[in-house]
Amino acid sequence: AEEPAKVKTCVGCHGQGGHSVVPNFPVLAGQHAAYLEKALKDFRDGFRHNATMQMFAKGLTDDEIKALAAYYSSQK
Amino acid sequence: AEEPAKVKTCVGCHGQGGHSVVPNFPVLAGQHAAYLEKALKDFRDGFRHNATMQMFAKGLTDDEIKALAAYYSSQK
Q1: Half-sphere exposure of A3 (CA within 13 A, CB side)
Q2: Which of A14, A22, A31 to mutate to test the interface with B (most CBs of B within 10 A)?
Q3: What pLDDT digit, counting tens, does each position of A1-49 carry?
Q4: Rounded CA gap, A68 and B44, in Å?
Q5: In this complex, do B25 and A33 lie within 8 Å of one another by their Cβ atoms?
Q6: pLDDT tens digit string along A49-75?
Q7: What would the 3-class secondary structure string for chain A be?
Q8: Are B18 and B75 in contact (CB under 8 A)?
Q9: Taking CB atoms and an 8 Å cutoff, what residues of chain A touch B23?
């Protein structure tokens, strides 16, 4: 899937195409889209707690979340 | 890393070698060991909420968690 604009905010921790090189930040490349969507929604809606992720996820719309999840799951 | 005995409990959802085929269950193969350790400890210690995962993580020792995380992160 093509690269959503919001990906710029993710690259710092999750790396290019979700190939994170920092062990605390999970690899996103090739992860299931449904799982990524749930994680982002849980961070956005306060069901999953991580200060950084909750801050980044806060303003995301469902469509932006879907696009980010599709993008990362499609990365090899 | 070699396959810990406890892996048998994970295979049902996360698949052989952590190659989950069910989209709600995350792929574990190739994920960072530090991230997997944190996730398992958070589930075990109640910092991250998922009924199934909390049940499975409940009895795990730190060593078992380390072995599981090492095993899955080493899967291609």
Answers
A1: 11
A2: A31
A3: 889 988 988 998 999 999 999 999 999 999 999 999 999 999 999 999 9
A4: 29
A5: no
A6: 999 999 999 989 999 999 999 999 999
A7: CCCCHHHHHHHHHHCHHHCCCCCCCCCCCCCCHHHHHHHHHHHHCCCCCCHHHHHHHCCCCHHHHHHHHHHHHCCC
A8: yes
A9: 32-35
Give me the helices (H) in B1-76, please. 8-14, 33-44, 51-57, 62-73
Partner residue opposite B31 with nearest CB, options A26, A48, A49:
A26
Q: Is A34–B24 a contact, with Cβ atoms under 8 angstroms apart? A: yes
Residues of chain B with C-beta less than 8 angstroms from the C-beta of A31: 26-27
DSSP B24: T
Go through the domains of chain A in sequence order and give each one's CATH number. Answer: 5-73 (1.10.760.10)
**Using CA atoms, how far apart are residues B65 and A35, in angstroms rounded to an integer?**
22
